[in-house]
Structure formats: C-alpha cells, structure tokens
Design a protein that fits this description.
Elements (H helix, E strand, L loop, with lengths): L7 H17 L10 H10 L9 H6 L22 H30 L13 E5 L17 E6 L1
Antiparallel strand pairs: 1-2
Amino acid sequence: MPFGLTNAPSTFMRLMNNVLCAIIQKNLKNWEKCLPHVEFAYNRSVHSTTSYSPFEVVYDFNPLTPLDILPLPSNEYASFDGKKKADHIKELHAKVRANIEKKNEQYAKQANKDRVKVMFERGDWVWFIRGRKDFLAQRKFKLQPRGDELFKF
C-alpha cells in the first residue's frame, strides 16, 4: 500500500478499478501487462493527504518515465554530501507527517461536527435503551418502547 492513505483499502481499490477499466477497455486478455504502467501512474500522482506523490516521498523527485528511477537520480540534491541529503529527506518526511496529521484532524472535525459529547456524573439518571435482540420475549410488538427504565449511573 502506498504511504499516506488514510482510508486505503476502499479508496485505493476503487481508484485502481477505475484506472484499470479506463486503460484496459477491450483488451481483456492482456490486462496484467498494464499493471506496471498503472502502478507508475499512481505512484507519480500527488495525493491530497500528503501533498506529495509517493515517488517524491521515497526518491525526493517525481520521475517522468520509469527509466528515471533506474539509475541514481540526477537532481540538485545528488551532489550534496550524505548528511545534508539525509537531513533533507528527514525534513520532507516531517512535512509529509504534518500534512497527514492535518488532514486527519480535518477528517475527524468533519466526522464529529454533529456529535455532542455527553459526560455523566456518578449518581445521574440515565435511560437504558435495549437493542433489537435484547429482551425479545418481553417485547410484545415492534412499536412498544425499547427503553426499559431509568437507571442510576
């Protein structure tokens, strides 16, 4: 699984299904030959969560073709000594981690916007609501209230 996906299984599989359907079309017998190209395209695309592509996170650059990742990358950072390169990669990973945390906070805020946090104190009265399968013998019909009675917390 690529780095940085928050809800990876469903989103990733849906995306791969759409991309494969678009690329394969009528060529159903040779679909496995398209997989490396789909993988490369996916790893080259910028993700909304990290704001970087997986290639940028791993290699510190976004290759144009698969041949660009075979030899050592020839970019401005290749001439730096090892410590500077390692420091640059650590900074990049810190930025990616911060972007992921920021996106997770946004997702949590959106998911929790209508929820109200209720705190109970010892001795408060609470209304216990039965589930559908709880106490089936006591319920005569489905419209009968499922609340049993008040309980002290």
